[in-house]
Write a structure and sequence with these properties.
single chain, alpha/beta, 8-stranded parallel β-barrel, 8 strands, globular
Length: 286
């Protein structure tokens, strides 16, 4: 079974499939120890690759190159990739989708924002006319071979959310995402209006959506959950704390304990990514 169809099978299975946001090869190495699905978050990639906010700075060749490296290191993982608005032009969107499919991505998320774009959980988002977005989405769907395509709307007004969700569900997309959904009640409303089409929910710390467990999401009829930033925010917190401690102790490293990460522990993590270890290294630890 190819990568897109493996992801389709996971989406169709009982329960909610979690995909963990990764922002570089190291965060992906850690995530792969715990989960069998990754989400290439635009928020995280813009932060890691450019040191910039996710407002449209990503160049698609950089993203394709990153996904290619991910697939080489993690041949068994689901890889869902955020391609924002498809980099503005519909023809570019189609080219990016075909390029990502060739390097082994499982699926993409295509949004209906217009430039300047913003994170789905902040204010000030602007959206394309629905007909314009549907034209772009249709071109992408026709350009793919097997790629899973998630159609995403960033609408914020309640009637428009439902109008767009229903329109997206009527296309040949595989999954629908309403980003920044603000309540459990609105998850139910979207679930009702899209019928049998699979539903994706995006959780981000400090964002607009409620904090929900996988069993709670399953009960609501959510098929996929993406966790965009737990690795990124944990890294920022841990690095801040480590460097503050180093400064506080006049440059003396903290005492090494059995629970610490040192040279051996880090190398053991990274060696799992070497191709000769793939057969025995891809099982999550739990």
């Amino acid at each position: 079974m190819n990568h897109p169809n493996r992801l389709r099978a996971a989406i169709a299975a009982d329960g909610t499939t979690p995909l963990i946001g990764v922002f570089d090869m190291f965060s992906a190495s850690v995530a792969a120890r715990h989960y069998d699905g990754m989400f290439v978050s635009g928020f995280g990639f813009a932060a890691s690759h450019y040191g910039l906010p996710d407002i449209g700075f990503i160049a698609w060749p950089d993203l394709v190159s990153f996904v290619q490296r991910l697939r080489q290191a993690f041949p068994a993982q689901h890889l869902l990739v955020d391609i924002d608005d498809g980099y503005v032009d519909p023809e570019t969107a189609c080219h990016v989708v075909r390029s990502l499919e060739q390097v082994g991505a499982s699926g993409v998320i295509l949004e209906d924002q217009k430039r300047p774009r913003r994170c789905g959980h902040v204010d000030g988002k602007q959206i394309l006319p629905l007909e314009e977005y549907l034209e772009k989405l249709t071109m992408v769907l026709e350009a793919r071979r097997d790629m899973v395509v998630v159609a995403r709307t960033d609408a914020t007004e309640e009637p428009e959310i439902l109008r767009r969700a229903k329109a997206l569900a009527a296309t040949d997309c595989d999954v629908v995402l309403v980003d920044g959904v603000r309540s459990v009640d609105w998850i139910r409303k979207v679930r009702d209006v899209i019928g049998d089409k699979p539903l994706l929910f995006n959780q981000i710390a400090g964002g607009k959506s409620p904090r929900l467990s996988l069993p709670e999401l399953t009960e609501l009829g959510v098929d996929v959950a993406i966790y965009s930033t737990p690795c990124l925010f944990a890294a920022q917190t841990a690095m801040d704390e480590a460097l503050a401690g180093l400064k506080r102790d006049d440059g003396r490293l903290p005492e090494f304990t059995p629970s610490s990460v040192g040279v051996a522990e880090c190398l053991a993590l990274l060696e799992r990514n070497i191709s000769r270890h793939h057969d025995r290294a891809q099982e999550p630890v739990g």
